[in-house]
Amino acid sequence: MSGSGQERATAASPSGTVAVLEVRRLGYAYPGRSQPALADISFELSAGSLTLLAGPTGSGKSTLLRGIAGLLPRTGAVLQGEVVIDGWRMEAASPAERARRVGLVLQSPDDQICCTTVAAEAAFGLANLQLEPDQIASRVQQALEQVGLAERSQQAIHCLSGGLKQRLVLASILAMEPSLILLDEPLSQLDAAAADELLSLLDALRRRGVAILIAEHRLDEVLPLADRLLTLDRGRLVADLPIADDGHWANALEASGLTVPSLVALARQLGLPPCRDVPGLMASLHSKHSAEPSYPTLLSATAPPAEAESAAPAVQQWVVSLREVSFAYTRGSPPVLEGISLSLRAGERVALVGPNGSGKSTLLSLLAGQRRPSRGMLECAAAPVAMVLQNPDLGLICSTVAAELRLGPRLCGTGSTGLDGLIDEMARRLMLADHLAEPPHALSQGQRLRLAVAAALAVQPALLLLDEPTLGQEAACLMLTCLCGTEGLLPASATLLFATHDLEVAARFADRMLVLHQGRLVADCTPACLLDDAALLRALRLRVPGAWQVCRQLGLTPERAAGWLRAHTGYFFCREQALPSRREVCR
Questions:
Q1: Sign of the C-alpha dihedral, residues 275, 260, 492, 470?
Q2: Of 82, 106, 503, 570, which residue is the least packed, with the fewest Cβ within 10 Å?
Q3: Is-contact 457 384, C-beta < 8 A?
Q4: CB neighbours (10 Å) of residue 489?
């Protein structure tokens, strides 16, 4: 091995070409941990491949990606095996050599942003490689154009939304022109339109020969592009197989403890093989059942709308009321929210949806009392109010998980009667019971999100606000089921308002939808009403769930289609018709 670490280790992939990435018996245990986070993992990736890395929260996906990129802590840790990229052993490679060959997009873009402006951030890596200024400028311009940030090149990064920051991080990696790109939950902060743009870009990179490994929970969006599936469970590679029409990939997802995408569940209910997209499912359906309708089994799985309507309760007392509320961050600047009027009632489960930058987080911050309206009136009769931030790390300040769960009740002066039992139950239901003595920041991001939710629940809020809790459907459905189910942790009298980009998750767990666009409330209606408004969803560039599209094409009413989505999680709402169907489209 040379002093620079450039030792060639050429190996052929199964296709006979030189593998871009070889992971050989990789194992890793974090400092102070006896249980390995990764154990004996081996696989290869070839040029031009797009591989989906899946697994439950805490299965080791982020650790594996960091291990491939050479970013795992070494002091006090146990590291085994090796990683080879483009034939070069990464263990002995310098940071510059690694950066030329592999780029990693982390879950939180703020964790890897160093500079103050967009252009400076995109040029940072190239400057460290000491490239010529003209070459840096050319690469930066090209990378920013690829991610749609060229017109924002001189903008301050702190003004960017989470989704735009995610694009900037990818641009800084694209400028380095690596042969391997790793992405850790890149869709978690993106709305449907931005996610489509990112996936289209990844598809173009794949066609140019870049190898891509993407860890993602939003499986239904990545599966149509992926050609291979790796699944992890408790740090071990349990499946490595192509995503083909035989459907074995769907079985592998279930074997790893993941909820299969709703299209897969729908296909199975119709007696069809697993499908990755709506056209594929419809083609398979018409091929098998060309002579007669084939949805009786689908209808039998939905709740009868007439019975659901008759069970609607009386209108509850309002807990929050907004009248013509507007908000601007600075005097004289354009309003982020304008003319918002709405009321939330006790016991409601409400989804707040809208594109990136529509004002969802700002509205939640007003409801939480973190900011005051610039105009209008906001009245809150709920106490206490708890909010879980989009980045859960910002709210975790204690040294152990147990201390974090007790902090809120102590600060609020909540009595200790029954607190131990409540905390034990929350820890068990949110799968934190084995981590009570651990530091919060030793947990995976999904576990930290669940901890933040548990800490909010510990104060027994009358109003719970969740800002983008959907780190993929697996984590979101687990958490929202624990909150909203018939034996949920959130009392039936408490109100839940959660912001999300995912209309399918929203339709499953909400009985009312609020839609924001450019700071205005443009819809306030039931899930069925919103999902059936194709024109509005198209104008807002929101993605209609694939299972909903199939249900409607098979002739189901909007209420039955929404019922199927709810029944898919085992949690059913029966209150749609008790809600207002008011639509207020702002011109």
A1: negative
A2: 570
A3: no
A4: 22
Reported as a single tens digit per residue, the pLDDT across 145-199 is: 998 899 999 999 988 877 788 889 999 999 999 999 999 988 877 888 888 888 9
Three-state DSSP class for residue 290: coil
Task: Give, as one character, the DSSP assignment of residue 289.
Answer: -
pTM of the model: 0.81
Which bin fits 413, alpha (ψ -120 to 50), beta or left (φ > 0)? left
Tens of pLDDT, residues 218-269: 888 999 999 999 999 999 999 999 998 778 898 888 887 777 888 888 888 8
The one-character DSSP state at 30 is: -
Contacts from 428-437 at CB under 8 Å and sequence distance 24+?
Answer: 429/482, 429/489, 430/454, 430/479, 430/482, 430/489, 431/478, 432/401, 435/401, 436/400, 436/401, 436/402, 436/405, 437/400, 437/401, 437/402
Domains (range + CATH), the chain: 21-258 (3.40.50.300), 309-535+574-578 (3.40.50.300)
Q: What is the pLDDT of residues 534-577, one digit of tens each?
A: 999 999 988 899 989 988 888 888 988 888 888 765 433 333 33
Residue given tokens 């709305």 in the structure block: 191
Average pLDDT value for the chain: 84
Tokens of residue 482, six digits: 């624990």
